[in-house]
Write a structure and sequence with these properties.
The protein is mainly α. It has one domain. Helix content is about 55%, strand content about 0%. The chain is built from four helices and no strands. The protein is elongated, with a radius of gyration of 19 Å. The N and C termini lie far apart (about 55 Å). Belongs to the GASA family. It holds the Pfam family GASA. This is Protein RSI-1. Keywords: Signal.
Length: about 90
Amino acid sequence: MGARPYSSLWLVLIVLFMVTLSNVVEGYSRLRPQDCSPRCTYRCSATSHKKPCMFFCLKCCATCLCVPPGTYGNKQTCPCYNNWKTKEGSPKCP
């Protein structure tokens, strides 16, 4: 009978952890349009082709409201950004 309050406490803690985790993950994916410029500036900071990178990153961000974390890769965190292709079938978003 005494173990029941502890299992309820654990359940509450697990739910709170999951809500917090989902908010962190969503923070990477859903942006407001005004958040695109700083995210794209960082995303394109490691390339030598900054102008085209920024152009396409801003375009992709405005459409998808998402920019993957880091300067390269991690596109799986933003499915729209990852799956948007050019007419030739290559990735549109940097």
